Structures
1.
Amino acid sequence: MKRQDQLLEFVNRKGFRKGWSAFIIAFFLLFVVLPTVFVVTYAITDWDAISITVLSNPKTMAIIWDAIAVSFAIAVIVTVIDFFAGLPVAWMLVRKDFRGKELLDTLIDMPLAVPTAALGFSAAIFWVVDPSPVPLSLSIISSPFILIVLLHVVFSYPYMVRSLAAILEEIDETYETAGRTLGASRLTAARTITLPLFRAGLATGVILCFSRSMSETGGTLIALSTMSSLGIVAADSFATGPTLIADWRTLSFTDPSYTPALAFVSILLIILSLVLLVVLKLLIMKFHLPLRRVWPMPEKMLSRGIFPKLKDGSALFFLAMIVLVPSFFIFTYVLFATPQAAEWDSFIFALGYSFLLAGIVTIIDIALGIPFALYISKHREKRSSHVLDVLVNVPLIVPTAALGISLTLFWSNIGSLSGLEFFILVLAHVAFTYPLVVRNVAGAVEEIDPSYEETARTLGANPMQSFRRVLYPLVKGSILAGAIMAFTRSLGETGATQAILGNNAPTAPVFIVALVQSDAFFQAGLACIILIIVSYVFMLMLRYITRKRKEVI
Amino acid sequence: MPEVELRGIVKRFGKVTASRDIDLKIADGEYVTILGPSGCGKTTLIRMIAGIIEPSEGKVLIGGRDMEGVPIEERDIGYVFQNIALFPHLNALGNVSYGPVVRNKDRKEVEEIPRRYLELVKLLDRMKMFPSELSGGEQQKVSLARALASGAKILLLDEPLSALDARVRMDLRYELRRITKDLGLTVVHVTHDQEEAMTVSDRIVLMRNGRIVETNTPEMLYLEPKDLFTANFVGETNLLEGVVKEVLEDRSLVELRDGTVVEARPSKFKSGDAVVLSIRPERVHPASEGLGAVIRCITFMGTYIRISVETDSEDRVNFDVSTSEDRDYNIGDRVDLIWSKRSGILYPRPPEGVQEAIKLE
């Protein structure tokens, strides 16, 4: 007991707290931000290499520009689709009461728990034209572009719905009711009152979807590779920015002359993503939708009768057909496919490896992310805190494949990588999952009235006690949410992992990519299912454990 | 004609019944206040008139027309919200113009109507301000102008003053009545503040537990409350428990717990009935003989002094004396209290007990 008191006193000392804050910030800058953008320095130190092998080679340049243009086009289309398909569902979740609402609420999150590698495979099998189609599959898509758009919609859609619902929750329903008492029909009121109030919050959803689509590697690779195995030649030459990095990275293991091109693509992607982040933010804040005009009669007509039902119905149909069925179609596939023998030993090893990695990463995120989140939300008045707040978003925006290249360059600059693969992977995964925990926790802490903690302090609690007894119970849910996001993100990640260790990286998603690329579809399908089930069981367990705890307190 | 009628309204939210058996008729141009403690179902009632929620049973009629299935925007009502709910992205003018715009008025009217109503609430000079730049009172005035500008003939006010400072609240009360009377509107005003209800209404509907307790003019509700709950909730009163000794032509005689016999109005009780005697503090006076009591608490209130005593019959009684009175009162002093027989009103003693009967939920 006494030792604990001494420890507490030590921890509460001002000097210690200052040092601790400095350590937390230094960790963030050195291990999260710096490695993420380190590749940019390559442009300075090795500009000659880039200019000789890349800039003066029109063929390479054409490939790069194509890939990046495709990435952008896909991200834009996906974001727009997500918005229009997600808005009615978000609206239903927040503003309506109906039977099965909880089910809908759960269904929306389901694709998030499926690693993108599994999603890519599942969606490709469902959509792509197949000479001998799997029963129940649609088998209608032969354009790689459309396939990738459909795939990206699947995993970015939940983010859009979630962030739209979160803003909608914040907007007082009274405004809309007030509009209606003034004579506006449901649609007019929603369009002229609620939508304009959305604007600031809309940025979050748009940026999340956009950057998720820009950055996705594993699922895209698998979908394209499945497509080309099914005999669609266009898929062979089709590449997005991240898949281009993945391809070239594989080649660069044997042919180092690819390194400058790799670095160049990564730099481009990082810079473009960051510029885009700023532009999008400004655009959404400044852009005035033409929402002031009204068309009372047509809008009145659209507000009642069959139209609202049609709108909700088609939004739900979209959710089912475009998002949910393709996500889980893999189960049908495995059911109908001819079984083949598989190397289970290596898959189980990969699975264990992935879980260990994700577990360690999540622990680091929580241990170092919570203090950081507390720091930025408690020092809002300081400029430095604002800068840190913006910097936290950087790894979220940067495509993970580019981040992987950046990290590899960073660490190989410091020393040899061999033997330290696991360690490097942990650092890489921390870089892109850390912001998820920080964002969630900081958001929750800012919501909480500081007077609770102040009250605890006036009642004699020291800062540690007031955190543990007052703040922690209130933000526990958000910590859990952040942890689950970080864990699943790490578990399903392909881009950065592959960029660091190539196709031989021993994680489960990369293992699945390799299986698909060697046409071992059945094994890949089974591996996906196992990955999905294990992820689900794990998440349910986590939820169960934390829920039980709550009851005890 | 914009009269409002509620017929047999019942509203249930799951297992909770928020309104039961509500029958109410509000005449054209009448200012009616629905008064009651928080949670009594008064807001539910006007939300049903507005069409924000539908009743579980019964009918809402506006101008004689059944409102079932008629959406909010076609009920021709103006609604002023407790939380004011000015659209934060529009300035004052934009807010007030919203009604005319969405009702598809022609250009000239969209220009003119909002200015007219902003003028009416004396805020024309602040029309370019955004809600966040206006004070609470100004915001509520803009929201009133907004409701009026949409052309409504029926105005529903949902605790419109409760978010405002005491002083602003007072001023706005009179404004509300003046403006709505000038325009000849039918008003349903919801409040939990009995003083506010008294000062603005033509008629007060007192509610409790989802039911209407009593409906009457402010004067009658105060002077002749028909119910023990009304007597206690509207204004202040002292309640003394006793037994009827005798009922005479011009008064009733009630025997209190200590055997003291006091007077009240003539009534229909028979001797031996258990009753509660209600007597307002301003009607109780100190005298040389009467109901004996000991002073327990003295509070200086400015224009008068509130004295709280414990009577020999073990009842708590408050009474007021003028600040200018010569006599000196001290805690522990004995006083004798009297009142005129016309001031005491008798109610049957409720079987659930007096405290239960006047409880606010």
Note: Residues 549-553 of chain A have pLDDT under 50 and may be disordered.
2.
Amino acid sequence: MKNFILTILAVSAIILFTACAKRNFYPDDNDAGLSRFTSYGYNIATNYINGKPFINPFSALHGNFLPVFNKISTNSSEDTLNISWAIEREDTTTYEPYHYLNLWIPVSKTFSKENLLGYNGTRITDSCSITLERAPVSPDTTTKGSANIYFVKIEEDKSYSPAHLQISGLFDGNIGDSVLITKGRFDFNIAESALNF
Amino acid sequence: MNTRIVFFCCFICVFFCERLYAQPNITLSTGPAKDLNNTNYEFYYLPVAVQWNPGNKKSHPFFAEISYGQTFNVSNSGTAYTLHPSLPPSETLKESIYANIATFNLGGRIRVGRPNRKSDVNIILTAGICSQNFKVTYKNYDKTNYEVLNPDVNTNMSGAVEGFGIEYHFSVHHSVRLYAQTPLLIIRGDYPLSFRSIGSVQLAYGYKFYYKKRK
């Protein structure tokens, strides 16, 4: 009986150990608190907000929190592509009010996955917006600011089933004069089935 | 894995092989070395080694050796990107890489030939630890405005190495050897770099300083 329990404990420990996800945070020597700018599908996004480093959260079970790519229909002539992910302070010792970062890109009504792939190597510097949200979202905390986004690399990875998109890029922006978002970089690997377009 | 087992067995065999009755000496050696483990780069360096041979009638032909060398720079290119509207979206940067390599080896000799009284031919087997410190620089990198995609970074790799060579002592003081050392057998860290640990082949000349007469 004792051996049986020990075996169960050992197997459980092995399963727990192998089930642990990896953070994939590789510190950038030039920008303290940020991860290196990579295109390996690490599902990591880091940036400064008013000089303080932020990162998408991590859990040992699920890994890095994934972004959401949503096309939002509007009544105007264009729809909006919303890219959103949760954020927290890179050093979690300090509480900060921001919990979500949203990038907003105007897109055509017929925007599709192929159009997103077409953004590969595209720098958008005059038409994007950015918002920072608290959780739960309240209207007074979602004032839009202006943003720049550079989709440095977007590739379809068909080694997964369903296929994934590897999306790497840079972003920055400001919300009024009080909130400055700088040195943003993301490296995502998301299932195409998670897109709503 | 099988190669390592064979190598380990060979190393153990040294214990049971013919003894060499050399006088205790210190050997200084140097010679060009070329890395064989990297396909993207050709690392060349000139390691300098100090070898202590405590040999006497009662001992087996073992030695301890420390060596140090710095590779010549090799070049690569990296691409950096910026969001700044008034700057070019991307820039190709020249990347320069070199490595400092320090090794401590314990080794043994197996005599395989003796052309004359003052010369012999030995096979040498070594096992030790090696530290390889890679330095990476990007020339003219505007760190404020640009970000390098998938950058190489300064890296210190350390681990076990094994070596194999053939050595010819052609006079009382002089020797040459052709020696190959494996790359690091265990490497920590999983960030992808454009280079790997160095595993080299070296042609070296050595000079022996005898510090104690044989009894």
Note: Chain A has a mean pLDDT of 89.
